[in-house]
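Backbone shapes recur. Consider a single case.
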Amino acid sequence: MLMFKITLLISALLLSFTFTACNSKAQMDVNDSGSKDVSDLLRTLIQKEKEINILNQKLEDCKNSKVKS
């Protein structure tokens, strides 16, 4: 009977450690993917900001050329 309780306790501990390790890995994977998504969004935002600045400059140039004419 004592051997059964010890085996059951060891099995429960191993199962607990396994679930904890899986949970930690899954959480780290989620955090990493979130960071990658944010990085991609920031790169896209910076690129769009550059495009907007170029268009604003063209608009300003066009406006200035019409004023001179």
